[in-house]
Amino acid sequence: MRIAILALQGAFDEHRQMLTRLGVESFLVRNLSDWQQPKDGLIIPGGESTAMMKIMRDEGLFTPIRDAILGGLPVFGTCAGMILLDDQHLACMDITARRNAYGRQLGSFHTVAPMSDVGQVPMVFIRAPFIERQGADVQPLATVDDRLVAARQRHMLVCAFHPELTSDTSVHSYFLGMIR
Ligand code: GLN
User: Fold this and answer.
1) pLDDT for the residue 104
2) Exposure winner among 33, 84, 126, 165, fewest CB in 10 A?
3) Is the pTM of this model over 0.90?
4) How far apart are CA 100 and CA 13, in angstroms?
């Protein structure tokens, strides 16, 4: 198995280290020729969604990535990656993410909460979004303070928190299980 990690900006290296710990090969995508390598899945990391959108368009990656996901490529978006997959951006998942949703004071925090099919998960939130609208086809996986923070729609997984910034590999394992 070989996983592409979008590496335009943000916390891509932490995802790569997580996959290495799980014994899974990965490669970084910075441009179209990187993207054209064979892959079994894609991770879109956290960072700054506005910057990632701009670079993705400048590099000609927006449409190829969107088409691949709509064609069934398994994808995992964390934080800004979740924003990019929503109906306002790549428009792959039937969700609307609300950006910087926890306000300034609560911008960053850590908690442990249950995630369906995964278990208790340590969750690091950094100026995180939450899912403010989800379509009927979207399976809610975790809520924190009554806000939906993780969800799945068929081959697409998103979470508002950063599993790659903890030592817990369970959410990445869940994503790999969606591919296998
Ligand atoms: N607030 C950021 C955005 O809007 C997301 C933050 C993150 O990925 N940690 O893109």
Assistant:
1) 55
2) 33
3) yes
4) 23
